[in-house]
Design a protein that fits this description.
InterPro entries: DUF389. This protein is α/β, with parallel strands linked by helices and about 500 residues long. It contains 16 helices and seven strands.
């Protein structure tokens, strides 16, 4: 402080000497100049004070270190890592609920499953263990993470094996690869979660919100679904999405714990401490590299699609047709292929073909966008019947989607009615012709009857066709039984119905 005051005094003396020299040179004092300098010094002082106040306010607003409970945070994270007993059953139930929700295409049910799922425990444990250099905790977290993933996939696999998904194009199962939004949601969701866990008095609403936002459960259910139907590509894509989300949540945990300066685990053996530190650092790098690579790819894809959309809006849509044609914006296909030529596919309706000069102009305009320079522009338009049919079906589906959904139930009822009628047709037999054949083949038959009997075993009801035979007097019971057996075998072949039965009518009747 003395040095600062001394410097300030010297500065003031220097300024006074300078002013004195100027005064001596002119022979007169300049009160306006002196007042201006004082005002400038005052403004600088006020600005410095204001900046200091803002800095102090922001520091107090964003500070999370002072309200961090290290002991409770560590205990809470470690407590949620194990997957056994109650936690395992909660996970199984939540996976089954999510699978039912996916089967019914119900977002609300899947969200409910996310709220009760304990998926976050081992993931936070991995990030926390790497941050504090705890190799034993890392082993435990990785083991329980594997148990969690395996148990989830097996549960989903068994469910979808016995209850096939009704709609493979369910919006909840549609994405099997991460885009930039998934990556950002996972990262910032992980930040919010670990910050909430570190606060004195954990914020439960944040934990529930992160469980919903990061959506770790649908990809695991999708993996089980893909394995159940034998679609390994589908299962692999969903597993990749789950792993990427897991990695970014772990990275967020690692960064927050490092920022909060949690104490590192100390080992008595210096060589072991050094080796564990190296292992933790290598794991952190290995986990971060694929995350960076994935983020870079999805970021490039996002830019490509944004530039393609901008190109379409500025160059393609303004094009004026002279014969009533138009651009089908909804049918546009923008496909980004990493390492290969990406495609921008445009569809047009009407009898008017796009002039080649216009197409060449569009291709030239595409080169002005850095990410569209190597993209292929494909035009489906004008006189293409295939394109018209494609657009017709697309627009019809979009317009009638709700009506189609409402008719699903009616279709199911009609299918049941068709099945019922099929059974009646199956059970319908040419009675008159068969009865004459029976009379010619078997002597002693006096009467032939036929009926469709309704039979139930109290768990299932079915309709069975039955032929009733009345024999003439004089035919022995043994002979009747033998002929009845032969007749039953013959009727099964004759009618093509293996469920047909025969019955004997007593003479007294």
């Amino acid at each position: 402080m003395q040095n600062d005051n001394s410097s300030a005094t010297k500065s003031d003396q220097s300024e006074e000497a300078s002013v004195g020299a100027d005064t001596a040179a002119t022979g007169t004092k300049d009160p306006g100049s002196e007042k201006q300098k004082q005002e400038e010094r005052k403004v600088r002082k006020d600005v410095g004070t204001a900046l200091g106040s803002i800095r102090s306010f922001l520091s107090e607003l964003l500070n999370i270190r002072d309200n961090t409970d290290e002991a409770d945070t560590r205990e809470g994270i470690m407590k949620d890592i194990p997957f056994k007993g109650h936690t395992a059953w909660i996970l199984i139930c939540s996976i089954l609920i999510a699978s039912v929700g996916l089967n019914a295409n119900s977002t609300a049910v899947v969200i409910g499953a996310m709220l009760i799922s304990p998926l976050m425990g081992p993931i936070l444990g991995i990030g926390f263990a790497i941050a504090i250099n705890d190799i034993d905790l890392l082993r435990r977290s990785l083991k329980n993470f594997g148990v969690m993933v395996g148990l989830s996939i097996i549960t989903a696999f068994l469910f979808f094996r016995f209850f096939p998904l009704q709609d493979e194009n369910s919006e909840l199962l549609a994405r099997t690869a991460p885009d930039v939004r998934d990556v950002l949601i996972a990262f910032f969701g992980g930040l919010a979660l670990v910050i909430a866990r570190a606060k004195k008095g954990t914020i439960a609403s944040v934990i529930f919100g992160v469980a919903i936002a990061t959506a770790l459960m649908p990809p695991l259910c999708t993996v089980g679904f893909g394995l159940a139907i034998g679609n390994l590509e589908y299962a692999g894509g969903a597993m990749y999405l789950f792993i990427i989300n897991t990695i970014f949540i772990g990275i967020a945990t690692f960064l927050v714990i490092k920022y909060l300066r949690f104490p590192m685990v100390r080992y008595a053996n210096s060589k072991k401490r050094k080796r564990i530190g190296q292992i933790a650092s290598i794991l952190a790098v290995l986990v971060t590299l694929p995350a960076i690579y994935t983020f870079y790819n999805v970021w490039r894809e996002s830019i490509f699609k944004r530039q393609a959309t901008e190109f379409i809006n500025t160059s393609v849509k303004p094009y004026k047709f002279s014969q009533g044609g138009y651009f089908m914006d909804r049918a546009t296909n923008i496909s980004f292929n990493d390492g290969e030529n990406s495609v921008v596919q445009l569809f047009f309706m009407g009898d008017e073909s796009i002039p080649s000069t216009v197409i060449e102009t569009w291709k030239q305009q595409m080169t002005s966008y850095p990410y569209l320079e190597d993209a292929i522009l494909q035009i489906q338009g004008g006189r293409s019947d295939d394109a018209e049919r494609y657009q017709y079906v697309t627009e019809l589906y979009e317009a009638k989607k709700e009506e189609i959904a409402n008719k699903d139930q009616r279709i199911s009822l009609l299918e049941n009615e068709v099945e019922r009628l099929r059974k009646f047709a199956y059970n319908d037999v040419p009675f008159e012709q068969i009865s004459n054949e029976i009379r010619l083949q078997y002597e002693g038959v006096e009467e032939v009857g036929f009926a469709n009997e309704i039979i139930t075993n109290f768990s299932k009801t079915d309709t069975i066709p039955v032929f009733y035979i009345k024999w003439k007097n004089g035919k022995s019971s043994r002979s009747q039984e033998q002929d009845m057996k032969k007749m039953l075998d013959w009727l099964k072949v004759r009618t093509g119905n293996p469920n047909i039965k025969t019955g004997k009518v007593s003479i007294d009747s």
